[in-house]
UniProtKB/TrEMBL annotation:
Gene3D superfamilies, A to Z: 1.10.8.60, 1.20.272.10, P-loop containing nucleotide triphosphate hydrolases (3.40.50.300)
Reaction catalysed by this enzyme: DNA(n) + a 2'-deoxyribonucleoside 5'-triphosphate = DNA(n+1) + diphosphate
Organism: Apilactobacillus waqarii
Protein family: Belongs to the DNA polymerase HolA subunit family.
This enzyme's EC code(s): 2.7.7.7
Class of this enzyme: transferase
One Pfam family matching this protein: DNA_pol3_delta
Name of this protein: DNA polymerase III subunit delta
PANTHER family, A to Z: DNA POLYMERASE III SUBUNIT DELTA
GO molecular function, one term: DNA-directed DNA polymerase activity
Residue span(s) of domain DNA polymerase III delta subunit-like C-terminal: 216-336
Amino acid sequence: MKVNELLTQIKNNNINPIYLVLGKEDYLINEIKKHFVELIPEEERTMNFASYDMESQNIATAVGDAESLPFFGEKRLVVVNNPYFLTGERSKSTLDHDIDSFIEYVNHPVDSTVMVIMAPYGKLDSRKKVTKQLKNNAEVIDLTKLDDRAIQSYVANNIKSNGYTVEGDALQELLGRVSNDLSSAMNELPKLFLYCQKDKVITKNSIDSLVAKSLDQNVFDLIDYVMKKDSKNAIDLYRNLIVEDQEPLQINAVLLSQFRLLLQVNVLSRKGYSQGNIAEKLKVHPFRVKLAMQNVRKYQFSSLRDAYLGLVDVEEKLKSTPESPELLFQMFTLKFVDNQIG
């Protein structure tokens, strides 16, 4: 089930007994929680709404609450957070969860209770009996499958519902600056609404003024300058990142990661892999692969390799010498421009 379908279902009070919300999209998770809580009248929430964290509370406690009839109301809402026992992940928790009682409840839920399981994970362990039973009996909202189009549509609809329009490619600029992260984009909108409240039009200029580029986005620009052998702009941007309190080792780590991705995408795309296949094989966000595929055609494999090896050398020196990070990057850039790396 898609998020918009779920929100419509809640609005129409057409509710199922059990929901499983899978994924790490914080903004949508909070929106879903908010709409479920609004099912319970405010004056009834003390008695008919409870939230449990599986890292510190036993699932049996949540099940016991779910089995109780609502107190002077029509519905009881039970939210189960962080159900790590549905995954293959290890947890610091030493709780011995009563999984059998949970499976029994999942198979025979109470009609007057709405149980919402919030699973902030990339995937669940489908081999486990408890996971299989839950998926068979719950309405599943999978936030892990939000693609670029769905994120763009969600942000665009929110802008429209607030009475604003967005100019030309300004929406793409906004999403690019937040690395296509929905939660980050939605957090930027209130500032843009306030800034553009006179004309009700969000422009690229307003985004330039208000929305800072992420480190990843700055690194993409940095890579472009390096690969174009534009040493002046590369060094200036690196210097600005240092002034903005970005850690040199972190900058270099992101640079290495992006160059590694460009090399991998270069190889896999030449073998005929699609964007989705590459993202799945490399286990990286599809948006990063999309950007890499847009850029990799401009660069020669040998130049990407030489730059990557040069940055490996920079990392070693950052960790083992007292030399200035800015000087190390400057030396790397100038050597690369003069083809002395590799």
